[in-house]
Design brief:
- The protein has 122 residues and is an alpha/beta fold.
- The protein is built from three helices and five strands.
- A five-stranded parallel beta sheet has the order 2-1-3-4-5.
- α3 links the parallel β4 and β5.
- The chain starts with a strand and ends with a strand.
- 20% of the residues are buried.
């Protein structure tokens, strides 16, 4: 059976997380689905993306397919092996402070570059 690693950043419960759970349940009938949840444990909320980045960067595993379902997870380059699927619900920086938005727009450009390396974008 093929192995699928689903990378998810646990920040808040949203419609996207419920959708992802349903998709994983359906996919588990066809492939071995492994959920890798990135959980930030920092006291200052603006440090969460930095913590996410380092947790994603250190993640080591092999799989036939990879799904990243968050814009922040797409900032880290794709693994070299396996099919790469990007699952984007929406990109909206309006919920962030005006002070960090310029950094987020720069990170979005990196995300765009990594999206081009995806085998599929949903």
């Amino acid at each position: 059976m093929q192995k699928l690693i689903w990378i998810q950043i646990a920040s808040t419960k949203s419609g996207g997380m419920a959708y992802g759970k349903h998709v994983r349940e359906v996919l588990s009938s066809y492939v071995d689905v492994k959920l890798r949840t990135i959980r930030p444990s920092v006291p200052f909320r603006y440090l969460k993306p930095i913590r996410w980045f380092f947790q994603l960067w250190r993640m080591q595993d092999t799989a036939d397919m990879w799904i990243k379902d968050d814009v922040f997870s797409l900032i880290v380059p794709w693994e070299e092996k396996g099919r790469r699927i990007a699952l984007i619900h929406h990109i909206d920086w309006s919920v962030f402070s005006l002070l960090v938005r310029p950094i987020l727009f720069m990170l979005e450009r990196i995300c765009d570059r990594n999206l081009k390396k995806s085998d599929a974008i949903v």
